[in-house]
Amino acid sequence: MDYLEFIARVTSHIPDKGQVTVRYSGLYANAHRGKVRKAQPDKHPFIIVEEERARVPRRGWAEMIRKIYEVNPLTCPKCQAEMRTIAFITDYAVVDRIIHHLKLTFVAERPPPPHRVSQQFFLDSEAPADHFS
Asked: What share of the chain is helix, strand, coil (3-state, %, to 5)?
């Protein structure tokens, strides 16, 4: 198959402008909802009740770190006891105050590469390749 035939086959799957691509059937179809609405005009047959469920903390992030780095992130470095997650701090101001209080600084060992290198990398990766020959 040459590249023109490939492009013709791919573009045949693109829908025309304004063409409906999602079709509803069963309970979600407009016809069914209209019939239910006519049969029971005062009642709402589909009532969505959202219950407030207690959030169960997940340990997925700890398992991934354990698999990749072979280190348990929930082990205390001083006493080797199992640590518990108490809270997640998401407010940047609070994080900055904690870092300032602990006198922690985050200085990179070396500066990041210049921006031109990454641009050149992307330009090289976008170079046309002869995939269809």
From this structure: 40, 0, 60
